[in-house]
Amino acid sequence: MTIDLPVIWFAIIVFATLMYIVMDGFDLGVGILFPFIRDKHDRDVMVNSVAPVWDGNETWLVLGGAGLFGAFPLAYAVITDALTIPLVVMLLGLIFRGVAFEFRFKATESHRAFWDKSFIVGSILATFAQGVCGGGGGERFSGGRANL
């Protein structure tokens, strides 16, 4: 019994996606819980708990997307065409969150609130867009405004 290359790539893509969900879910959760924590020290503890690993979590997303593009280009074309809007919103949220995460450490006290809010908004945008992408996979989502 042999295992075909598409089966191996499917397993790699599923593994990368699950690793992203598990690992980055914690980071996104920290960003979503951020508005409910008012104490500066507690916020610093929250951010410092994810600081060592948060950069690498998006690597799993890149591996899954690149694997889908390389192994299943037709599926990649159909999925990205149908989910262009939520995927762009997700990427903008992840970029905004990453920039806010880095600048939060370097900001003065007067600018830290802005970067905290940016971190919150980026986390919520990314999470919402991922939910739209996940929910759109099981339905007849075609990417139009009427489908949102």
TrEMBL record:
Q: Which InterPro entries does this one have?
A: Cyt-d_oxidase_su2
Pull one GO CC term from this UniProt entry.
cytochrome complex
Family under the similarity heading: Belongs to the cytochrome ubiquinol oxidase subunit 2 family.
- EC number(s): the record gives 1.10.3.-
The enzyme class is oxidoreductase
Q: Which residues cross the membrane?
A: 6-37, 85-103
Instruction: Name the GO terms of the biological process aspect.
Output: aerobic electron transport chain
A GO MF annotation of the entry reads: oxidoreductase activity, acting on diphenols and related substances as donors, oxygen as acceptor
UniProt keyword Metal-binding, yes or no: no
Q: What is the lineage of its organism?
A: Bacteria, Pseudomonadati, Pseudomonadota, Gammaproteobacteria, Enterobacterales
Q: What is this protein called?
A: Terminal oxidase subunit II
